[in-house]
Amino acid sequence: MNVEQWTWAGQEHYAGFCLTFVQDQEPAAVAAALGADPPTLMTMAEAKQAYPIDKPGALLRLGAFGNWVFCFEDRAPIANRPPAITRLSQGTRMLQVTKSGDGMVIVRDVVDGRKVEMFEPGGAVYVDGPLRPRIAALLPANSRIVAALAVVGDEAVPTWTVQSWMAH
Question: Three-state DSSP class for 122?
Answer without folding.
Answer: coil
